[in-house]
TrEMBL record:
<dbReference type="Pfam" id="PF02746">
    <property type="entry name" value="MR_MLE_N"/>
</dbReference>
<dbReference type="InterPro" id="IPR013342">
    <property type="entry name" value="Mandelate_racemase_C"/>
</dbReference>
<dbReference type="InterPro" id="IPR029065">
    <property type="entry name" value="Enolase_C-like"/>
</dbReference>
<dbReference type="InterPro" id="IPR034593">
    <property type="entry name" value="DgoD-like"/>
</dbReference>
<protein>
    <submittedName>
        <fullName>Mandelate racemase/muconate lactonizing enzyme family protein</fullName>
    </submittedName>
</protein>
<dbReference type="Pfam" id="PF13378">
    <property type="entry name" value="MR_MLE_C"/>
</dbReference>
<dbReference type="InterPro" id="IPR018110">
    <property type="entry name" value="Mandel_Rmase/mucon_lact_enz_CS"/>
</dbReference>
<keyword id="KW-0456">Lyase</keyword>
<dbReference type="InterPro" id="IPR029017">
    <property type="entry name" value="Enolase-like_N"/>
</dbReference>
<feature type="domain" description="Mandelate racemase/muconate lactonizing enzyme C-terminal">
    <location>
        <begin position="162"/>
        <end position="257"/>
    </location>
</feature>
<dbReference type="InterPro" id="IPR013341">
    <property type="entry name" value="Mandelate_racemase_N_dom"/>
</dbReference>
<dbReference type="InterPro" id="IPR036849">
    <property type="entry name" value="Enolase-like_C_sf"/>
</dbReference>
Amino acid sequence: MKIAHIECFAIKITPPYAYLGGDVSDDLPDYYYRNEYRCVYSRKMETSLVKITTDCGLVGWGEALAPVTPHIVSEIILNLFKPILVGENPNHTNVLWSRMYDSMRDRGYLSGFLVDAIAAVDCALWDLRGKEAGKPVHELLGGAYRQEIPCYVSGLPAPTIEGRVALALEWKSKGFRAIKMALGYGVKEDLANLSAVREAVGDGVELFIDAHWNYSVSDAVRLAKGLEALDIRFFEAPLLVEDIAGHAELRQKTSIPIALGETERTRFEFRPFIEHRAVDLLQPDVGRVGITEAMRIGFQAETHHLQVAPHLSVGLGPCIAASMQVAAALPNAIKLEFQPSVFHIANSILNSPLNCDEGRYCLNNRPGLGVDVNEEIIKQYAAEYQHA
């Protein structure tokens, strides 16, 4: 079996409301700066999909987490990786990952869009491997430690504390017992939000906080003391990601587990956080690291007795499916993120829906990633993006 053809599809989908809440009016630009997170967001759901076809007709699908400018990932795959990949055996995932990574290594491209593109290709290769073997990817990874993957609801995208409390209670009524709040608005306001939700949902629901890198070490320590009293189970992205020493200092001053990883793309980037004892919970995003590297990161964490909870934000069908395979196959994976509005859109581009019910993703055990992409819909979205 050899790789014969590679196609890429950069797409944008207009949702009912923007990710984490926001206006999606047509007269507004797609991209806008969120002051509270110091980051550019899109009003649309954007992603980059790759389709790899072999000489025997098998098709594998992959996806990069590409929340903005997804065409960049597609261009890297088509112009840089395609000449490397065509004619190669897709079963050689380790070799091909290394060739793609090495292709720009001596020029300093060790992260960012380049590795996002590797992730998309890598997921497609694993999809092909599974389909050729007639087995789900988790079997090829060594087996599933779990057929149902516990998840947590992410975000609570309401503009007020009362709205967030209502959403939390709604998810609790649906059987979800873990919720992460996207905060980072200041120590006092974050504690007010978490206190209100904790009081409403009671002790039977795990609560987490994502602070979006907004705190200094001193303020993060102040916040962490309040989080301890509320039994918050992890403190995600408390500080600017470059501050490894700050994370280590914070970790020494609180019993709340420190979580991070959505910005890191390789085991090399996770290594200093692990070695400096600056993290408790690793959150690699399979749409940014791929399946091959996600497993390496997971095993790297295991050697230091650390847990993994893969990040999953605006990745659509293949990205979610690949994340499920990894979360099933890693012994130290404890949870997988769940984005309700994104999940609904992801299923809209699949012929057979993914399943998440009562706080658990359910593996379907179909070959490969276990998803069947609706190519007609994908091509329509891609054409609209090209002509926008």
